[in-house]
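Pasting as-is:
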Amino acid sequence: MKILDWYILKRYLLTFTMMLLLFIPIGITVDLAEKIGKILSNEAPFGVVANYYLNFTIYFANLLFPLFLFLSVIWFTSKLANNTEIVAFLSSGVSFSRFLRPYIIGASIVSAFALLLGLILAPIASKGFNEFKYEYLSKGKKVQETENIYRQINENDIIYVSRFDALNKTGYNFTLEHFKGNVMEYKIFADNIRYNEEDSTFRLIQYVKRRVGESNDIIEVARRKDTIFDFDLDDLSPVTYMAETLSYNELNDFIEKEKLRGSSNIGRYEVVKYKKWSLPVSVFILTIIAVAVSSIKRRGGMGVNLAFGISIAMIFVFFDKVFGVMAEQSDFPPLVAVWLPNVVFGILAIYLLYNAKR
């Protein structure tokens, strides 16, 4: 690599790192100011709070990664343009494509970091972040309450609860249907079902078991019954952030398992899966757009470039969120929802790059 490459690459990586170091403390400060009352009232230990904000840092960085990158490239490239350094580079015989090369090298490094973040670090951080939020920031609220859970847990058994409160580990209007082939062998009813952590059993209140016979049904009734089932607590309490806490291989296995169970959250889980790969690609797209926009010296200076760049970044984030929600809450294909913003902005990047070269 030549002096030009090292000069731009160092500015690329240093500015991006400084952008993270500037914005993450601001995010922590705002979050702490908002939640300090609940943290103190719920007596969260200092070590747990410190671990929460370590996880928050990784979670926050992963969430706003494209925005930080885009603004940092806009910032230092605009400074190069305002100092007429880009004009000097191009006047010396360096083509615009050659000028772009250190940016692509920098984008490759950041993209590898984004991949590491999405596949390994972010799932671990997301688990700690969400567990702290539900344990210490949501006490007394039924934030983990889910309704109308209907799941096939294996080839023979189907369960249903009208409502499940994960804070109390209790489900209401529980039903289990056991089939052999297409024939129902028995059906279990209970007013509520509660998980016992001490012995990993389930306690059923107002228990009724109806075994289907050839001529007469056999009915078993009990006011209370402790038993073991071929499912666990996660089958009754499918928290929405589950997919975010799994590594890529675990996530693939989890999605396949949920498909067999007929889960209604497959779209949400697949959005998380595809974003692990789309984010590193968006690093290259946003880098090219940022260079194309900010490499021209404008009359308004850096302010114009920053305003234009922030507008594009906000539109990108808006498209990403809107299509993600569509895939989670409708039949819109998750693969299309995740990659469509990259396709649209990739076309925009090619157009802006072509005009910048001219």
